[in-house]
Write a structure and sequence with these properties.
This protein is an all-beta fold and about 120 residues long. It contains no helices and eleven strands. The strands form two sheets. Strands 2, 4, 5, 6, 9, 10 and 11 form a seven-stranded mixed β-sheet that branches. It has a four-stranded antiparallel β-sheet with strand order 1-3-8-7, with no helix packed on it. It is globular and about 45 Å long.
Length: about 120
C-alpha cells in the first residue's frame, strides 16, 4: 500500500519558488516526517525534518530558503522552497517512520518513502 505520495515538483528558473506536498497515510507516524533529495550521481540527503508538527530541522544548504510544515488534519506534509538554486535540482522524497519511535532530528532514520517528485532549477 502507498504510505507516502509526493506532488508539486516541476521546473523553475533560479530565484524562483516551488511548493511540494506529500499525502501521508494513517499507517505512517506523524511524529517525525522529513523531506530528502537525491541528485544524479549523489547520495540521498536530508533536506528538512519536522518533529511533532512544530520543531523543525534543516540542512545547512537550504536554511532560510526552505520551510517544512505539517497539517495533521489533512494528513499532509509540505515543503515550501524559495530562492531556488540550480544545485537544488534533484528528486525530492518525503519520508516517514513506523509508530513507536521517539527521536527526531535531521539525522533521523526513516523507513517509508514516497515515489519522488522531480525539481529542476535552471540558471
Amino acid at each position: 500500500q502507498v504510505r507516502l505520495a509526493e506532488s508539486g515538483g516541476g521546473s523553475v528558473q533560479a530565484g524562483g519558488s516551488l511548493s511540494l506536498s506529500c499525502a501521508v497515510s494513517p499507517y505512517v507516524s506523524s511524529r517525525c516526517l522529513g523531506w530528502f533529495r537525491q541528485a544524479p550521481g549523489k547520495a540521498r540527503e536530508a533536506v528538512a525534518v519536522i518533529h511533532y508538527g512544530h520543531t523543525t530541522y534543516y540542512a545547512e544548504s537550504v536554511e532560510g530558503r526552505f520551510t517544512i510544515a505539517q497539517d495533521n488534519a489533512k494528513n499532509a506534509l509540505y515543503l515550501q522552497m524559495v530562492n531556488l538554486k540550480p544545485e537544488d535540482t534533484a528528486t525530492y522524497y518525503c519520508a516517514g517512520r513506523s509508530f513507536g519511535l521517539t527521536d527526531c532530528s535531521i539525522n533521523a532514520s526513516f523507513s517509508y518513502w514516497g515515489q519522488g517528485t522531480q525539481v529542476t532549477v535552471s540558471s
